[in-house]
Amino acid sequence: MKKVRDYPQSAISSNQVHVYEMGDGGPHAELHVVVEPDAPTAREGAGGVHHVAFRTPDNDSLRLWAERVRDFRIGSSGEVERYYFRSLYFREPNGILFEIATDVPGFTADEPLETLGEHLSLPPFLEGRRQSIEDNLKPL
């Protein structure tokens, strides 16, 4: 992710906006960060943001992100194994939870791409709760 431009106070926002670009860039790969030092602390709940997720290619790049977060003296979860990916969680200064997750091994770790999504696949750590999870799913 690289910073590509700033918008000063303007019609876009009464606060400064930093624009970051990911991957090959373009509008679909931009993150706009509005500087609002007086904003109230974020709260979870209806209408709020639970977390913002970013992706990184592999475990090595996740370790680099973990080091970078640690270098900024931001507390984190450390690497968390999620079976389909590994994640790193930390909170930005206003309290929003950020997640950086690997693309590997991916959702084809336990089923072929050709039939992906036809049946409910669960990571091993959730298999013991399968019946309860299935009972609470709404049909599509």
Polypeptide structure, described:
- The protein is an alpha+beta fold.
- The protein folds into two domains: 1-35, no CATH class; 49-113, 2,3-Dihydroxybiphenyl 1,2-Dioxygenase, domain 1 (Roll), CATH 3.10.180.
- The chain contains two helices and seven strands; from the N terminus they run E-E-E-E-H-E-E-E-H.
- The protein has helices spanning 59-71, 130-135; strands at residues 2-7, 17-21, 30-34, 51-56, 76-81, 86-91, 97-102.
- The strands form two sheets. Strands 4-7-6-5 form a four-stranded mixed sheet, with helices on one face. Strands 1-2-3 form a three-stranded antiparallel sheet, with no helix packed on it.
- Strand 5 (76-81) and strand 6 form a beta hairpin.
- The longest helix is centred in the middle third of the chain and has 13 residues, at 59-71.
- The chain is globular and about 50 Å long.
- The relative contact order is 0.12.
What topology emerges from the helices and strands here?
Blueprint: E1 2-7, E2 17-21, E3 30-34, E4 51-56, H1 59-71, E5 76-81, E6 86-91, E7 97-102, H2 130-135
Parallel strand pairs: 4-7
Antiparallel strand pairs: 1-2, 2-3, 5-6, 6-7
CATH architecture classification name of the largest domain: Roll
CATH topology assignment of the largest domain: 2,3-Dihydroxybiphenyl 1,2-Dioxygenase, domain 1
Quaternary status of these chains? single chain
Count structural domains.
2
- Count the DSSP helices: 2
Percentage of β-strand residues: 25-35%
Number of strands: 7
Main β-sheet: number of strands, strand sense, barrel status? 4 strands, mixed
CATH class of the largest domain: Alpha Beta
- Percent helix: 10-25%
Strands across the major sheet, in which order? Answer: 4-7-6-5
The CA-CA distance between the termini, in Å, is 36 Å
Order of helices and strands: EEEEHEEEH
User: What is the residue-mean pLDDT, rounded to a whole number?
Assistant: 89
Output the structural class.
Answer: alpha+beta
